[in-house]
Amino acid sequence: MNKEISAVIMAAGKGDRLKEVTGGFIPKTMLEIEGIPVLARTIRSLRATGVEDVVAVISEDDRYTLPALNKLGIGLRVVRQNILLWPGTAKAAEYGLAITPNTPERRIIVLNGDDTSLIRPSTFGDLIDRHLERLTDCTVLIIPEVLPNNPLSRYLGEADRDLASLELKAKYGGVLIARYNWLKHFLPIIQTDDGNEFKITRLFQLAKGKSVINQLILADQNQGNDFNTPQDIIQTRKKCLP
After folding, report:
1. Looking at beta carbons, which pairs linking 164-169 to residues 24 or more positions away fall under 8 Å?
2. CA–CA distance, 95 with 81 (Å, rounded to integer)
3. With the CA atoms of 164, 121, 174 and 4 taken in that order, what torsion angle do they form, in degrees rounded to the nearest 10?
């Protein structure tokens, strides 16, 4: 058990582009892949890694998630986010951070609740190990967006490159692990973007030159998935097929 690691899963999004699937009632993180809600998949992978302290950030009016997880025998702590007043993933992470233990060595894994359901326990374990071994402020999961035979992919093997050098060749994989105090410092100073959202990816811009940020490249493309449209759901289900 990783006693000094907590996980905050951001699961308050409504999934406006998925209303034809959710009916506007089921949170998109509770949509099922192979009979298991995506949020449940993520929680089980974390717990298989030894991360027992898991907090889910859900919307204030969500009356679906907790009962559904309880039926599956999945217990966890939740905190409710007012997404109208404080929209965005950075604020969700703040909500979750507020109820995690603040101990000197505490690390926090912050995850998107929708697009991390295919990440395996071994990948979470690798991310934790890299972070603890390198003694960095933050370690980020990065998903390559180039084909394996593309000449640009040679850059992706250099895991210690500055994050900015990967911007055109990779995307944020929806998972980071960071020191508790590092998150506590940077999350509250994130400003809204043009869409009036507080996005957690702005952490990297704010911390550039002030922090040590490392990255882990997710080489297995089958563990990466978007989860914003009906087509994304179809693709995610295909990746689960044997």
Report:
1. 164/208, 166/142, 166/215, 169/144, 169/145
2. 7
3. -80
Beta bridge partners of 143: 171
**What one-character-per-residue DSSP string does 185-216 give?**
HHGGGPPP-TTS---TTHHHHHHTTTS-EEEE
Number of folded domains that form the chain: 1
This prediction's pTM: 0.86
DSSP string, 210-238: TS-EEEEE---GGG----SSHHHHHHHHH
Query: What is the total residue count of the chain?
Result: 242
160 phi and psi angles, rounded to 5 deg: -95, 10
Cα separation, 71 vs 54, in Å, equals 17
Which residue intervals of 100-201 are DSSP H helices?
A: 121-134, 180-186
pLDDT tens for 126-179 read: 999 999 988 889 999 888 765 444 443 343 344 444 444 444 456 788 999 999
- The domain of 98 spans 5-240
CATH number at residue 232: 3.90.550.10
End-to-end CA separation in angstroms for the chain: 30
